[in-house]
UniProtKB/TrEMBL annotation:
Its main location: membrane. This is Phage infection protein. It is found in: Membrane. The lineage of its organism: Bacteria, Bacillati, Bacillota, Bacilli, Bacillales. It is a multi-pass membrane protein.
């Protein structure tokens, strides 16, 4: 142990008394710090300087028409980028942009194609197409820049997408809001519609029966139309016959009216004659009564009276015959409301009574002739009776003449005129009916066509009825299910919203609430554990490269004494290197260190461990050990996870990761920078101490035997003049 400290003191004395050695040692103490500081400062906050990266932007968008409104998404994007400082956006044409990105003046170029707005507008069509943004990057210029520019391009695309989604969602939620308002206003109609559906469902059997009845009625209606079409010719014939009958009846009435007009004066004259005859007979009888008649002349008188009575009877027969002809014509008229018949019948009765009176006069005249010679006294009585009869006859004739003049003739003429008027009206009606028959025939034909078409539609409806019935039942069941599952008032409340708030929500439905554990404010501070650890290892490499692991006069010391004695020198210089770099990180660079004291102490521990490893490799293996230390450095830079997460490294580096000192050294320094979790820190300390103790044990027990075997090899390498 005494010799170990003797070697250490001698090294310290030599450094203190030799200014050249002191300067060299000072340089070795400072150089590792410079390596760490420059790298930390260079990577202090590179992502805050992305506005210095030139990126070309080419806008070739020609716009599009959306519902009579012109849109230019490309122009809107350019306006947005002009106010964006994430990159150094350069707005140029395609040729200039491609030339500059190819030459390296631009790191990347973003091209907005001609159909950019047009494709975005297809979102409202049945075949929407995705719009594309062309991105060109020159990856030859720098390894990191393409990633940064790619991120910038992705941000642009994301921004376009978010704005587009926000706009579309705004329109959608405007529609939803309007739909909710409209649903609320139409809620009574919706309820009524539901009731209609349930009512239809309830009445489906009745509707089915009604359809069947309609089909049956349609078939019956077809038969009725066929019968009606068959009766049209008969109706036409009947109207023709009716017109002919009316024409003949009218002609007959006209003839009867003419005959009546012709007979009226004659009848009147005949009645006057009868009256005159009755007067003459009465006068004649009066003369007979007033005179002394010679009964011998009675036969002559009776003959004269009989002759006059016969003339009167003939006249009455003539009138009676004319009235009977008029009666026969009137009966042929067959009108239900005929008022002529009673008048004619009454006239015939009066004529009959008059005729009976004259016949009695004639009979009395005959009696007069018979008894004239037998009973004169009875003759007087007979004459008196005869006179009475003639007077009655005269009275009846006057009454009949008055009845005929005032009643019979006017009534007959009036009724004949009325019958002619009725027949004229009937003829007009039949003529209208006859003219309507072709139209009726056309209507029947059209009705038959419509009925056939209606029957076909009824049959089609009847055929579709099972499907319709099934769908209505399904709809009714679905409405009941919806009523059980949801409340339309809740749906209306859900649809009614603030479109602006909803659009904002769906533009960014998930907001990242970032909670930083062990926050580190900048990239340089985050890289400090790696670069500081690397600087400590590099410092050890510098020492073993410039300082000798052997001592002058080594013959008087054992291998273990030389190993530990010179190790103390290397360790002290390494500690000074670590103090400079760790304190410089804090004081000069103002690196964020959560636990500054522990950062320095952890650095000192790492320095001792690293120095033991590097020193042991060179002390035991000589120049081969130097190579091994460099190889180990390379492996640790790549596999320790200092820059990239271990999960991103190739499988080989993931395999060696747990066996590298850097792994635990960097992790321990990160604990001090971000905040110490002592479980992890203690684990790292334990592993580092294992590495350090293992190195010391290796040097203690293998230095002497391995040095003997490598002594000749080292001698030969020095003889080459290339190695010291």
């Amino acid at each position: 142990m005494k010799n170990i400290f003797r070697i250490f003191k001698t090294d310290g004395k030599n450094i203190g008394t030799n200014w050249v050695a002191a300067i060299l040692i000072g340089g070795l103490i400072l150089l590792p710090s410079l390596y760490a500081w420059f790298n930390i400062k260079a990577s202090w906050d590179p992502y805050s300087q992305t506005d210095q990266i030139p990126v070309g932007v080419v806008n070739e968008d020609q716009g599009a028409m959306v519902r009579d409104q012109e849109i230019h998404v490309g122009d809107d994007l350019v306006d947005t980028l002009q106010n964006n400082n994430d990159m150094d956006w350069q707005f140029v044409d395609r040729d200039e942009a491609m030339d500059k990105v190819d030459y390296g003046d631009y790191f990347a170029v973003i091209v907005i194609p001609k159909d950019f707005s047009k494709k975005l507008s297809t979102v409202i069509s049945d075949n929407p197409k995705k719009a594309t943004v062309e991105y060109y990057v020159n990856e030859k210029i720098n390894a990191i820049a393409p990633k940064i520019t790619e991120k910038g391009a992705s941000v642009i695309v994301e921004q376009i997408s978010n704005n587009f989604i926000a706009t579309v969602n705004g329109v959608i939620f405007d529609l939803f809001n309007n739909l909710g308002i409209e649903l609320e206003s139409n809620l009574p109609d919706i309820k009524q519609f539901e009731e209609y559906i349930f009512t239809i469902e309830k009445n489906l059997p009745a509707i089915h029966d009604m359809l069947n009845e309609s089909l049956t009625d349609a078939a019956n209606a077809q038969e009725i139309i066929n019968k009606a079409q068959g009766l049209v010719p008969k109706a036409k014939q009947v109207t023709n016959n009716g017109l002919a009958t009316i024409d003949s009846t009218t002609e007959f009435l006209t003839s009867a009216e003419n005959r009546l007009n012709e007979m009226a004066p004659k009848i009147e004259n005949d009645l006057i004659k009868i009256r005159d005859m009755a007067q003459s007979a009465d006068k004649f009888i009066s003369e007979i009564q007033s005179k002394n008649v010679d009964f011998s002349q009675g036969k002559d008188i009776a003959a004269q009276l009989n002759e006059r009575v016969n003339e009167q009877l003939k006249t009455i027969e003539t009138i009676e015959k004319a009235l009977r002809q008029l009666q026969e014509q009137n009966q042929n008229n067959q009108e239900p409301d005929n008022t002529q018949q009673p008048t004619i019948d009454n006239a015939l009765k009066q004529l009959g009574a008059l005729r009976n009176s004259l016949q009695k006069v004639q009979e009395n005249a005959k009696l007069l002739t018979a008894f004239i010679g037998e009973k004169k006294q009875e003759a007087d009585q007979t004459l008196a009776d005869l006179q009475q009869l003639t007077q009655n006859t005269h009275t009846k004739i006057d009454a009949f003449m008055k009845e005929y003049k005032e009643t019979i003739e006017p009534t007959v003429l009036k009724e004949v005129a009325k019958a002619k008027s009725t027949l004229a009206n009937a003829r007009g009606i039949l003529t209208d009916i006859q003219q309507t028959i072709p139209e009726m025939k056309h209507i029947l034909a059209r009705t038959e066509g419509n009925l056939g078409e209606g029957k076909e539609k009824l049959e089609a409806i009847s055929g579709e009825f099972p499907y319709l019935s099934n769908k209505i039942n399904q709809l009714a069941d679905r409405i009941r299910d919806i009523q059980d599952e949801t409340d339309i008032n809740e749906i209306i409340e859900l649809l009614q919203n603030d479109p602006e708030a909803e659009r904002s929500f769906f533009a960014e439905p998930v907001k990242l609430n970032e909670n930083k554990l062990y926050p580190i404010p900048n990239y340089g501070s985050g890289m400090t554990p790696f670069y500081t650890t690397l600087a400590i290892w590099v410092g050890a490499l510098l020492l073993i490269s410039l300082l000798s692991v052997d001592v002058v006069g080594s013959e008087q010391f054992s291998a273990q004494q030389i190993y530990y004695g010179r190790f103390l020198t290397f360790m002290c210089i390494g500690i000074l290197q670590t103090l400079v770099v760790t304190i410089g990180d804090i004081a000069l660079l103002d690196v964020y260190i959560h636990e500054s004291l522990w950062f320095i102490l952890f650095g000192l521990l790492i320095s001792i461990v690293f120095m033991s490893i590097v020193y042991t490799l060179v002390s035991v293996f000589g120049d081969v050990g130097k190579a091994l230390a460099i190889i180990l450095l390379v492996l640790q830079i790549a596999g320790a996870g200092g820059t990239y997460p271990v999960a991103l490294l190739p499988e080989f580096f993931q395999m060696i990761h747990p066996f590298l000192p850097f792994t635990y050294a960097i992790d321990l320094m990160r604990e001090a920078v971000g905040g110490i979790v002592w479980d992890r820190a203690l684990k790292d300390i334990v592993y580092l101490m294992i590495f350090g103790i293992a190195a010391l044990l290796l040097g203690t027990f293998l230095k002497k035997p391995i040095n003997k075997k490598t002594k000749l090899l080292m001698k030969k390498s020095k003889e080459s003049g290339l190695f010291h």
